[in-house]
UniProtKB/TrEMBL annotation:
PANTHER family: 3-PHENYLPROPIONATE_CINNAMIC ACID DIOXYGENASE SUBUNIT ALPHA, CHOLINE MONOOXYGENASE, CHLOROPLASTIC. Residues 41-149 form the Rieske domain. One of its GO terms (molecular function) is monooxygenase activity. PROSITE patterns: RIESKE, RING_HYDROXYL_ALPHA. Belongs to the bacterial ring-hydroxylating dioxygenase alpha subunit family. This is Ribosomal subunit interface protein. Keywords: 2Fe-2S, Dioxygenase, Iron, Iron-sulfur, Metal-binding, NAD, Oxidoreductase. It comes from the Bacteria.
Length: 431
């Protein structure tokens, strides 16, 4: 990449991204090698493999993997590829097994990854040792129930180091239950004819909310709720490409923030939860946990959207102009059944692929992708808020944090925790 793609001009407080970043096949191929083969990537939530023997299989960073809870209690991430001749060992998305049996020639592997059975073993000589053919295990770790994997044995950071300032926000999610959080069974698998980074940008972009989601805003208003204010809240760069937006309490939250969108009968129960949290965490932190709306972006491809319901959204590239999106809802394990139903309904109503918001978002990012075909307009602008000490949610600081890390990794720099926003401020002072 001779010509810079990310043009970060701190003097002029200008931040531009060359649209080749969204359209060029070579860029897409380099992203797989320099980003997805190297970073820590989200695999799943521990609650998806709750017992010894439970597993899920899915694609992570373009690679098929199995997240397995072994009979010894350990949670591991295996390559979903038989060590014999490579078939996918597991084609079920989830289940419960003592062992995995490869459908091609019936080799079997324990849920700890050991090769346990080979049919007609006398076809192999004395040098054949089962111990050499265990499933390939990837380096994995979890933070407060969120399991990540890295395909880079040289990845210098532990998961916690990698998550940098994002841990503060994951804590705000994980603290929403005294008994732990769980993924509600069933995922929404969909996609878009657009570059994967457009969905990352969109998921942390509050600037568009009132403009693009007018139908949802009027729906909320028709139910007597106040949609999020136009101004306010704050955006943050959390280091190493992660960012967040946090809004003051306005929209309803099924956990403990009642508004007229919800059944009045549930109000006392939600208020009791709010009181319990205030007791446990103190008023200020409890308010932040239960009342604020958040969008947390974890580089490169995980969004945790803690607004209305709580959504985990994993966004995977499929070439330059197509992506796969996986969404699941996360909820407190001990949730009141009626509130759980309410949560599910609001999750589907707003964030589901057929809800009020996501179809708008998909349509608009597909429209951006089509707009790039014109090619005359070379850059997209992401400079909102570079002039402010505390950028608002309608500013683009989290997106700039994403792009700065993207740029470092694409240039082969591992990236480091740098206070890019401080540099923005110095630029602002010079103005
Ligand atoms: Fe799996 Fe042969 S490829 S047993
Ligand atoms: Fe949106």
């Amino acid at each position: 990449m001779d010509d810079p793609i990310v043009v970060d001009d701190l003097e002029r407080l200008s931040f531009r991204v060359d649209r080749r970043a969204y359209t060029d096949d070579d860029v897409a191929a380099q992203e797989m090698a320099r980003i997805f083969d190297r970073c820590w990537l989200y695999v799943g939530h521990e609650s998806e493999v709750p017992e010894p023997g439970s597993f899920v299989s899915r694609e992570v960073g373009g690679r098929p993997v199995i997240l397995a809870h072994g009979s010894d209690g350990a949670i591991r991430v295996f390559a979903n590829s038989c060590t014999h001749r490579g078939a996918l060992l597991c084609s079920q998305p989830a289940g419960q097994v003592k062992s995995f049996r490869c459908p091609y020639h019936d080799w079997t592997f324990s849920n700890k990854g050991e090769l346990t059975g080979v049919p007609i073993p006398d076809g192999y000589g004395p040098g054949f040792r089962k111990a050499d053919f265990g499933l390939a295990q990837h380096r994995s770790d979890s933070y407060r129930g969120f399991v990540f994997v890295t395909f880079d044995p040289q990845q210098p950071r532990t998961l916690t180091e990698y998550l940098a300032g994002a841990t503060e926000y994951i804590d705000l999610v994980a603290d929403q239950s005294e008994t732990g959080m769980e993924v509600i069974q069933g995922a929404q698998l969909h996609g878009a004819q657009a570059n994967w980074k457009l969905m990352m940008e969109n998921s942390v972009d509050i600037y568009h909310f009132r403009a693009l989601h007018k139908r949802y805003v009027s729906y909320m208003q028709s139910l007597g709720s106040v949609p999020p204010r136009r101004r306010g809240g704050f955006g943050r760069a959390l280091g190493l490409g992660h960012g967040a937006n946090e809004l003051p309490p306005a929209a309803a939250r099924p956990l403990a923030h009642w508004t007229p969108m919800f059944d009045p009968e549930l109000r006392p129960r939600m208020e009791a939860t709010a009181a319990r949290f205030a007791e446990k965490f103190g008023a200020e932190r409890a308010q932040r946990i239960t009342g604020m709306n958040r969008a947390l972006m974890i580089f490169p491809n995980l969004m945790i959207i803690d607004a209305i319901a709580l959504t985990i959204r994993k966004i995977d590239p499929v070439g330059a102009d197509r992506m796969a999106i996986t969404s699941v809802a996360l909820a407190p394990k001990d949730e009141d059944p009626e509130i759980r139903e309410l949560r599910k309904s609001h999750y589907l109503t707003f964030l589901g692929p057929a809800g009020f918001a996501t179809p708008d978002d998909i349509e608009i990012i597909e429209s951006c992708q089509r707009g790039y075909r014109n090619r005359t307009v070379r850059y997209s602008d992401l400079s909102r808020g570079m002039n402010k000490e505390i950028p608002e949610t309608t500013d683009e600081l989290p997106a700039r944090e994403f792009w700065r890390q993207w740029d470092r990794l694409m240039h082969g720099d591992d990236g480091h925790f740098e206070v890019a926003h401080q540099a923005e401020l110095q630029g602002a002072e010079k103005e």
